[in-house]
Amino acid sequence: MISYTTALLYAIPFFMILMALEIGYGYFVKKQMYTVLDTVSSISSGFTNIIKDSLGIGLLIVSYPYLERNLALVNIGNSREVWVLGFIFIDFAGYWNHRLSHKINIFWNQHVIHHSSEEFNLSCALRQSISNLIGYVPLLLLPAALLGVPEQVIAVLAPLHLFAQFWYHTRHIGKLGWLEYVIVTPSQHRVHHAINPEYIDKNLGQIFSFWDRLFGTFQEELDDVPPQYGVLKPAATWNPVHINFQHFWRLVKDAWYTKNIWDKIKIWFMPTGWRPADVKEKYPIAIIEDVYAFKRYTTEASKLFKGYILFQMFATLGLMLFLFYNFENIGFGAALLYGAFIFVGVYGYTTLMDRKKYALTIEVVRSMLGVAYLIIQNGWFGMQTYFAGATSVMLSYFLITITAAVYFTLLEKEFFNNEIVA
Length: 422
What we know:
single chain
């Protein structure tokens, strides 16, 4: 866990720099692929995923070390070739995990967040799941375990494999010639994220593209079929927590409402999107029919509001980096409390982005609890040992949050509408 959080200390700033470069390039070529609210939603989704994974929240069916220790038929050692082989095994497992996520109802819930943005840019890569609470991926690494690929190799390569999937979430890079036959490229991944009928459930590879060609899931990006992004049942929210569990909640409701006992069970394991006939008729769900003419989700946002939301995102980023930098000193129990605070913070300001009035309650309550923690603990998780003004900074943050929540929930919308009328 400590090694993972250490890796994040380097990876997160690197990702932010790359996104800043893509935004700058978009302005330079007058082809901007970012909007403020969508980008904040994507990055905030990454915050929740990183906190969940770094704290080890979830249940693992079986661990890879257990499989390797008990099922290895040979011991192939720790040579340079083993690292290459381990990476290939991880990518092979990733392909099948990805394919399951697209093809089976219950597994789609853990992946829908990644496809929920109606834009396509580097920030989309950060839309990662917090709903994958039951881990089964080590089972897909069974071939590596049977060959005795050391657990240390898998532990080091797994995060590198994940981080290597970041770069191809962009519309600014065209096709890459012969590389299209070897690795997953931006062109191929644009196809994967598209909701066009020609592109749905295609290009499921993560690093190597030959799995798709081998298993019949490859689709080239077509010049006359521009990719359109999102999901066919639009998320219609900026809140990553809601997006993570929307599909699951639909499955729960359908399983409850259907009269057919067998349908209550099989709905979870049917192809993605399948619904019992009686429920589908009685409780229809809107699905995008024309991918070129659907209304993309948006909410009212003044320049001041966008500025405040960016402030909250960067403040959360700073708090999260401090947690990872000081993880060992904070301790696991306190880190759980810290992580909960970040979760609630993300939930609060993304609910405010949706312009929901109950965001006011969330933001005021969490800020008051934060102030109470500052008073009781005489500081913020040891931050004051790094610089003397830490307590004042955190107190100011909470006061700004309360003030902004009141203003943007109760006052700005009235002023904004009056300005439009005037």
